[in-house]
Every structure is written in C-alpha cells, then in structure tokens.
Specification:
Protein name: Tryptophan 2,3-dioxygenase
Pfam family, one: Trp_dioxygenase
CATH topology: Methane Monooxygenase Hydroxylase, Chain G, domain 1
GO molecular function, one term: heme binding
Shape: globular
Low-confidence stretches: none
Oligomer: single chain
Keywords: Dioxygenase, Heme, Iron, Metal-binding, Oxidoreductase, Tryptophan catabolism
CATH architecture: Up-down Bundle
Structural class: mainly alpha
Helix content: 55-70%
Pathway: Amino-acid degradation; L-tryptophan degradation via kynurenine pathway; L-kynurenine from L-tryptophan: step 1/2
Bound molecules: protoporphyrin IX containing FE, N'-Formylkynurenine
Length: 265
C-alpha cells in the first residue's frame, strides 16, 4: 500500500534541481518584513496590508495595460481583449476589497491617523501612472510628488510622454481605414457601432475600454463613501478638502468620447 502512504513522495515533480522553495520563489522573507506600523494601534497592520495589496495589484494592472496597448498598436485586437478581461477582474477585486478596510471603526482609525500626515493616497505613484496611461494626463499632479524618488518622478514623466490606451485604440481604428482626426473620430466610432458585422472586434474592444473606465469610476465612488464613513467632513492628511475633492474626481472619465457616443446612437 506504499502508493497510499500519507505525506509527500520522496521526490516530487519539479524538485529535480532542488533550487526553489515556496518562500524563496515568492521572496516571502523580504515581503513579510515590510509591514512597519508607526503606532501601537491594533488596526494599523490592516491599514498597511490593504494599501500594500492595492499597490501590488496596481503593478500588475500597469503591466497588463501596457501589454494591451502594445497589442492594439500591433493590430492584435484579440490579445488586447484577452488582457482587458484580466484587468476588469482585478479592478472588481479592488472595489470589493474596500469592504475589508471598512471593518475598521473611525475611532480605531483615529488612534493612528495623526501619525500618517502628510502622507496620503495622493502620493501613490502607481495610481497616477494608471491614470496617465489610461489617458487622464494632468501634470499638475507632479507637484504632489515632491517626496518621490528620482526614479519615481522619471516614471511619471515618461507616462506623460507616452501614448495612452486611447492613442492605441485610435491606431487600431486607423489600421482599419477609419479616419481618426478630431473632426472625424465620432463618425468613425458610429461606423463601428452601426456595422458590427464588419467591425465587431473594434466595438468589443471599445466596450472593454469603457468597462476599464467604469470600474475605475466605481472604485473612486467606493473610496469616497469609505472616506466619508471614516473621516466625515474632515480635510485630508494630504491637504485636500477630503470628500468634496474626491467627489469631483469621481466624475472623471478616461474615454469621454465613448460615453458621448451613447447620445448619438
Ligand atoms: C481609511 C481609509 C482611507 C481614507 C480615510 C482615505 C482618505 C483619502 C483622502 C481624504 C484623500 C484625498 C487626499 C488627501 O487630502 O489626503 C485620498 C486620496 C486618495 N486615496 Fe485614500 N483613503 C483611504 C484609503 C485608501 C486606500 C485603501 C487606497 C488604496 C490605494 C487609497 C488611495 C487613494 C488615492 C489613490 C488617492 C488619490 C485620489 C485622487 O487624487 O484622485 N485610499 N484618500
Ligand atoms: N488621506 C487619509 C489618510 C489615508 O488614507 C492614507 C494615509 C497614508 C497613506 C495612504 C492613505 N490612504 C489613502 O489616502 C486621511 O485623510 O485620513
């Protein structure tokens, strides 16, 4: 009955070289020593953990969106669509995960909130990179990165210079022979929408862009609800008005023409 013996066999699949372990592969000794609370407050570990998890997902989103942009420029629309499905799934997780932080009471947050200032989500380099890559370029935000490293600042500047996802979509339309000048773009979007027999791939890709835009807006709304629940009408540690500032940001769109298109259909 040796075959049924409990426990792992002597040598498992993939162990032939014997170099990798679970923790080594995932760099867990480094990862799991990076949570450093500034206070004794019990909920600060939750606060740090959730932000670190967001930043890891932001890193993956930047990677996948860059690849989707390359695929659109290369005319590989099926590949871009495949990557957008992953982006959407991650973005849904980003929204859901607000629930975890909302298990913290405002009283428990106040035990360590003062220690955080002037740090704030304002200073998330990767969040701003996602905005710039998606098409919402606003160089005034470079001013909020006075404490960023040179490497981070140059990443942000590079994102401001690089083509956006919208530029890549326009390239895909142009490859199909559709005009993309400012004056003609709405007509081209309408052509795609009305002739799905010829252009369904371009239509579905535009829908994927719109879903990326929509899930980001939903995250912004979810974030501001959480902010009102935690700090009410207080101003933010980053120096903004807090919830009113964030409510203004929740109205922003990455691809305004795709929303405007609805009115013309
Ligand atoms: C208790 C929870 C939270 C509170 C009270 C809060 C509060 C705020 C406030 C007031 C701002 C405006 C900037 C300022 O003046 O500080 C802000 C911005 C921001 N927060 Fe949070 N936040 C919370 C959790 C999170 C989490 C979990 C993330 C995930 C990464 C996050 C990401 C951001 C980002 C990216 C911005 C910049 C938004 C923009 O400029 O459009 N926040 N937050
Ligand atoms: N801006 C928040 C503090 C906060 O949430 C925060 C602080 C440091 C690092 C990230 C944060 N998250 C989002 O803004 C506040 O005003 O309470």
């Amino acid at each position: 009955m040796d075959g049924d013996a409990p426990g792992p066999p002597d040598r498992q699949f993939g162990e032939e070289g014997g170099r990798l372990s679970y923790g080594g592969y995932l760099c867990l000794p480094a990862l799991l020593t990076q949570q450093q609370p500034q206070s004794e407050a019990p909920d600060e570990l939750l606060f740090i953990t959730i932000h670190q998890v967001y930043e890891l997902w932001f890193k993956l989103l930047l990677h996948e969106l860059e690849a989707a942009r390359t695929a659109m420029f290369g005319g590989e629309l099926w590949q871009a669509r495949h990557l957008f499905q992953r982006v959407h799934a991650v973005e849904r997780v980003l929204i859901e995960q607000v629930d975890v932080l909302e298990t913290m009471t405002p009283q428990d947050f106040l035990e360590f909130r003062a220690k955080l200032a002037p740090a704030s989500g304002f200073q998330s380099v990767q969040f701003r990179e996602l905005e710039f890559l998606s098409g919402l370029k606003d160089e005034r935000y470079l001013g909020s990165f006075r404490h960023a490293s040179d490497a981070e600042l140059s990443r942000l500047r590079r994102r401001l210079d690089e083509p956006t996802l919208w530029d890549a979509y326009l390239a895909a339309l142009a490859q199909r022979g559709l005009p993309v000048s400012d004056d003609e773009i709405m007509a081209s979007l309408l052509t795609v929408a009305r002739d799905r027999r010829s252009h369904d791939d371009l239509w579905q890709l535009a829908e994927d862009l719109l879903t990326h835009d929509e899930t980001t807006a939903l995250w912004r709304m979810r974030h501001v609800q959480m902010v009102e629940r935690q700090i009410g009408t207080k101003s933010g540690t980053g120096g903004s008005t807090g919830a009113p500032y964030l409510r203004g940001r929740a109205r922003l769109h990455y691809f305004p023409l795709l929303w405007e298109l609805r009115a013309w259909l």
